[in-house]
Write a structure and sequence with these properties.
This protein is an alpha+beta fold and 313 residues long. It has helices at residues 2-11, 45-52, 56-62, 65-74, 89-97, 101-126, 129-136, 140-152, 154-174, 192-198, 217-236, 302-311, and strands at residues 18-19, 23-27, 30-33, 39-44, 81-86, 179-185, 238-249, 255-265, 271-281, 284-292. 21% of the residues are buried.
Amino acid sequence: MKQILTILFLYVLLVTNISKAKTIQIAKGMVFEVPYKYKSIEIKYRQIEKLISQFPNLKTVIKSKEYEEYLKILGVGKNSKLIIIVENQEALKLFEKISTSKGIEDLITQYSNLQAGPITKHLEKTLTPEIRKKLDKMSEKELIKWFEHFYEEPANRKVLDKITTNSIIQILNEYKLNKYVIVFIMNKKIDREIYKQIQTVGTSKCIYNFYFNCRENGEVKDYLVNEIKNYISENDDTLVEINNAEFGRNSKNSLFFYTQINSNYKDLDFNSEGELLLFNRNKKLAIAGSTCFKNCNNFSDIIYKNLYTLFSK
């Protein structure tokens, strides 16, 4: 579910450089073949930062020294770019809609309306007459606190998560957003000292003190796979299947990690297939991922075909 929420967040970014190009240059010597009729959108980090700054709470975060140091370590600069590839014109309309304040307001209203009915039914079923009498006597502040506690209870959290997911899926279905690719390319080099440390992983000189042997590629791969699986399952109550995981170095001594991720969301008529590729090129970090919800036969290995086979050599 995090992948969906992440994509919804990306919708509110400033959309530019809408393209029908058949290829996208990821880096020198690395070209992504865009499937026929797919649309691509390129967004610079400076645009993302500009939009985030409009939200007071988020602005405080991105202006903090800790956040700026984090960006410096990863090599995220103003010209780092986010490339999004969607499968059709309908999906592109969603990006265009949310690039305006009115479009954002319309989507929030639609999302709230989709949730209102199911939430009301749940409350009617759950809140007994005694509880309602108690609530009637509470102040607004007390009501907010009570409902926060109410939805923290596992049973209610499960219902709310399902309502939220179904609302998001309805919006995705309306805009036919069933498949997408995200590539985030840093334009600055990774912090020099951090890069040196990372380069020791998988070698006899590994400096990290983990509970597994970081000198062995196989154990590093298994660790990354388990971390991904545990993270998704713990937070989303999801059955996760990890396939074709690879960790190693290419001929230029650059580290990479690739895997395919299939997720089955419990108690929901919803599954997804996707990929994740982490790599560095010329000491610059890049992240690529794909997600598919429907008709995934020709899409579930799009990262593998386009980027992994190029980079892993």
